[in-house]
């Protein structure tokens, strides 16, 4: 089965054809590309810097790096947070819709690997090398899934290179960009990935259709598989 067929199948399995109530979730299959002003976004970025770093590179492993992340993904996550989901609700409560668009565009334009390293800085202690078997399992799951366990390949939504769906910028016949909302996972923090997948398994993040897709896929992952995926993705150079 192709990765595009997997996306369609996941949507059919976990997203209702029509919402029972409009407030149940936001259908991100029917969205158009966002736009914003990165200069204005930078002026509001102090709000984010305390947890995500001044250049969008997290200062705490449990928080995601947001530099170079997909703008559409970040905007809709902010919309979700502002609606009251997770502890982020209080942090973004005062943001306007324009603010959220500007911030998303600003951070999307930053280098994913962060600013260039200072050659005069003290070297940091390197993490111990990951177990090759764990890395191999993570790569296998990401690229091919595990049909025997009902695990779809992650690349179906996040792209073979883990930088987001390859058709993210393509507009469909109805004028929508349904694949733009899937985030880049390449080089993301291991602790964050483990935590976020766990939240999907617990049924959190269910107010967007993309979250419903992830919740359905995550249910089939055991803890060893979650760790393998997180270890492999975090090992990839950004």
Q: What do you see in this structure?
A:
The protein is mostly helical. The protein folds into two domains: 3-13 and 129-235, Cytochrome Bc1 Complex, Chain D, domain 2 (Orthogonal Bundle), CATH 1.10.760; 33-108, Cytochrome c-like domain (Cytochrome Bc1 Complex, Chain D, domain 2, Orthogonal Bundle), CATH 1.10.760. The protein is 45% helix and 0% strand. The chain has helices at residues 3-14, 38-43, 46-52, 71-82, 88-92, 97-108, 132-144, 155-158, 190-201, 209-218, 223-235. Helix 1 crosses helix 10 (209-218), helix 7 packs across helix 11 (223-235) and helix 9 (190-201) packs across helix 10. The longest helix is centred in the middle third of the chain and has 13 residues, at 132-144. The protein is globular and about 45 Å long. The two termini are 28 Å apart. Mean pLDDT is 88; it is low at 6-22.
Q: What is the compact description of this entry?
A:
The chain is an all-alpha fold. Helices cover 45% and strands 0% of the residues.
Please specify the SSE layout and strand pairing.
Layout (H helix, E strand, L loop, with lengths): L2 H12 L23 H6 L2 H7 L18 H12 L5 H5 L4 H12 L23 H13 L10 H4 L31 H12 L7 H10 L4 H13 L3
Helix pairs in contact: 1-10, 4-6, 7-11, 9-10, 9-11
Residue share in helix: 40-55%
CATH fold descriptor of the largest domain: Cytochrome Bc1 Complex, Chain D, domain 2
CATH fourth-tier homologous superfamily of the largest domain: Cytochrome c-like domain
In the CATH scheme, the class of the largest domain would be Mainly Alpha
> How far is the N terminus from the C terminus?
28 Å
Helix vs. strand class: mainly alpha
Give me the count of strands. 0
> In sequence order, what are the helices and strands, one letter per element?
HHHHHHHHHHH
Computed over alpha carbons, the radius of gyration is 18 Å
What is the number of helices? 11
Q: What is the overall shape?
A: globular
Poorly predicted parts: 6-22
Q: What is the correct CATH architecture of the largest domain? A: Orthogonal Bundle
Please indicate the count of domains. 2
Strand proportion: under 5%
Average residue-wise pLDDT? 88
Largest sheet descriptor: none
